[in-house]
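Why this split exists: single-chain examples teach little about how molecules sit against one another. For that reason, every record in the complexes split bundles all components of an assembly together and asks for one structure covering all of them. Below is a record exactly as it appears in the raw files.
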Amino acid sequence: MHVFVIPTQRFLACHVCEGLVFAQREIKMTTTGMTFFDLDWLNKSADGAICVRCGYVHTFMGNAHQWVPPEQVKEGDLPADPLAGTTPPGPVD
Ligand SMILES: [Zn+2]
């Protein structure tokens, strides 16, 4: 999946390897003491966008990003991927 970032109106490129394909995973943001400071929204789950190439996890709170399936993305709308066409090792699991 690709991730479209609404404030920048651009697709997310991995901060580490500039990859454009991500897997989605819910990330629990449980913190202690936040209720006291009226910051309960910090306890909600975050949306993790995991770069399928290098494994770096980009973590989003709120709804300023959208998941977009590859078939709905025009090739020219994606940023350039400097490693496109190469096959570097993927993340270890
Ligand atoms: Zn990456």
